[in-house]
Amino acid sequence: MYLRLEKISKCFNSFIANENISFSVDAGKIHAILGENGAGKTTLMNIISGLYQPDSGKIYLEDKPVKITSPNKAIKLGIGMVYQHFMLVPQLTVTENIILGIENSWCLNLRQKQQEIAALSQAYGLGIHPAAKVENLPVGIQQRVEILKVLYRQAKVLILDEPTAVLTPTEVESLINILRKLAAAGNTIIFISHKLEEVINLCDTVTVLRRGKVVATTTTKDTTPQQLAELMVGREVVLQVNKFASVIGEVIFSVQNLQVADDRGIPAVRNVSFQLRAGEILGIAGVDGNGQRELADAIAGVRNIINGKIDFNSSPTRQRIGYIPEDRQKMGLVLQFSIAQNLILNAFKNLPFCRHFLLQSPAIKNHAQIAMQEFDIRATGEDIKVSQLSGGNQQKVVLARELAGEPDLIVAMQPTRGLDVGATSAVHSRLLAERDRGAAILYISTELEEVMAMSDRIAVIYRGEFVAILDAQTATIEEIGLLMAGGTRRG
Ligand SMILES: Nc1ncnc2c1ncn2[C@@H]1O[C@H](COP(=O)(O)OP(=O)(O)OP(=O)(O)O)[C@@H](O)[C@H]1O
Predict the structure, then answer these.
(1) Rounded Cα gap, residues 385 and 369, in angstroms
(2) Which structural domains are found in the chain, ordered by start?
(3) What is the pLDDT of residues 87-123, one digit of tens each?
(4) Does ligand 1 come within 6 angstroms of the Cβ of 348?
(5) Which of 17-31, 70-84, 209-223 has the lowest mean pLDDT?
């Protein structure tokens, strides 16, 4: 066995994040770690990569016990973490990013480094130009730069924490091919994902965690997505969306010839027009970066528009927008605030949370406890800082706040990104229930199947324009996929 963990445990105060975790992976194999949000996956990976020290337990590399006392020590031992939130400096080139922090010599031969990096990129089919500036690269390629970075540091164990969450389907396919090549070359890979089909397709073996403990380790060829989901959650899970036709009401919201610029001032949304009715879900399908973020921000009122109109047709007293932004850490949450405080960010001046300019702690606490129960936010209490929650539980805090108070319009951008299968299914049901009570919903996702399952109509966005608005009942995956890639419709 190349990597072996023996009875690893880790507590945060009284909370046990990892309890007696043991598993092992052979060289040349891909091993998945699965588990619900908060099950302890990231904590375990942070232990293997030297960021945290376990309270007890041992780690072995090639049967020799090792002490991974820091991230630097992990790198020296050949363990490389490919971060989900990329740690690259956008203004620097690929080569500069890769050698940053490890080349100390006075006369740096940049050309030679570039050649070495180009050769390494070619060996694994990464297709990276070493002189390219990172800020000009799409997300999928930036991720490969992260992979190249750990390979350059001679990692033999690669850890990838939800690497496909931010990728397009084509980018996922390329990543899967790259990981297969890396494994075939003898590397050991640990892969975390909430996408069960992907785990079965790519990985050789899988360990399932539930509430900090191992519940099963198995080979992927002997299991199914349904079985894995049930092992993770501990009960039966419905993996498909069950949607009934909704009763569509009056037009409550319309957008005319909307133009919005991106952060650099370049038009990102061009002449978009549509109407949305009460009780309707309009899905927006598109490859990431085609203007979805700017459109969502503009509708939610957090980004200026250059041209066009956004109109609410309902009475001005009742227009509330629930906005689930794509980047929850930057826009959706104040990480240093508690769960309870984050849940009232847009209502803290109102009754019952504030009375005579004084915050009402019991009401705030009570509100938080109810929301935590309803949205299954896993934490020891409502006073825990959001920065200490797992990624999926942070997302649940945003959802709980934005869906509270029966908004007329919900703008949901990638609302299930980072959520486990159980939580994903709960969010789908919840949004459908909001629709059925009469909310209008804009459902923006790069996951085509999810958009198709959730929507009544589907708009395809390409280079900032709606190239088609289709009826979800009759549209096909092929047709939408073609439009998303800039093709035109047949017939
Ligand atoms: N620094 C910390 N302080 C306190 N609690 C923490 C800390 N880091 C993690 N936890 C807790 O440990 C538990 C496990 O978190 P972890 O991030 O490992 O989960 P995860 O399985 O990676 O979840 P997700 O799928 O949502 O990313 C969570 O309940 C989290 O709140």
Answers:
(1) 14
(2) 3-233 (3.40.50.300), 251-484 (3.40.50.300)
(3) 888 899 999 999 887 766 656 678 888 999 999 999 8
(4) no
(5) 70-84
